[in-house]
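In this supplementary section we document a worked example of the pipeline. Step one takes a protein sequence of length 318 as its only input; no multiple sequence alignment statistics are reported here. Step two produces a three-dimensional model, which step three serialises into structure tokens for compact storage. The input and output of this example are shown verbatim.
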Amino acid sequence: MPITPSKHIWQNGKLVPWEKATTHVLAHALHYGSTVFEGVRAYATPKGPIVFRLRDHTRRLFDSARIYRMDIPYSADDINTACKEIVVANGLTKGAYLRPFAFRGYGEIGVAPKVSPPIETIVAGFEWGAYLGAEGLENGIDVCISSWQRLAPNTIPSMGKAAGNYLSSQLISMEAKRLGFAEGIGLSVDGTVSEGAGENLFLVRDGIIYTPAVANSILQGITRDTVIQLARLHGFEVREQTIPREFLYIADEMFFTGTAAEVTPVRSVDRINVGAGKRGPITEVIQSAFFGLFNGKTADKWGWLESCDGVTPNVASA
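The serialised model returned by step three reads:
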């Protein structure tokens, strides 16, 4: 999906014009993948644009940086404010996808140089639709099990949302699309279910909702956590556990979650229909509860919605 340019990007503490937000081609991150990042959604609501679970995303950004020994030169409050500034400065009142990230910039070359390159910090924001297609949100998508496995424990940390991790995701997703599927599912090194290329996975069997545990080489998704809490609020039992591959073929319902994917039903796996081959009733309840957070039908009991009211971007600095 092509990026729709907006007016400004927050770069190292100030708003700059979109086209001037550049870095050197010899930046460490470009060569060694030393970037940590987040994907955050801003939604249009009857009360104006809100940013969904912003503080949780920013906390994970700093957690990822800690794992990779990167000292972000801004506070969490700075990043939260920058995200809201981007929404307001770019007039993203219809909703947006926000990309805060930090990376090792230009300095010394080498995997682990003696003097660490400076940490650059960016927040971009632009309009972006449904990641797996608007039609997929209602009718579901076709997926396959990839021949590429997910990252093994104690190799690359799955709990860190780092750019290098997504080389694995690219292989899984490109293979799936080459074979005519919308997305791929990666297995853990022991052959059990892990996650999609860029999504967490949920399955329903006999009214119980299952999802792979954090130890199954998954990213501990924020939308995943949202869905678990909403499901339990609606009286569903949710089990986080190891899931065998064959469970994918006998599930009554299945859906992906993620900031980009939101809540997207899966209608088939390896050309085997999931249940009736369409969005199931429990998936529909979860979807309705999730999107209800933004149209007022689901009460925000958790303080997940952050308004952009009162934010005045310093556009003059651009």
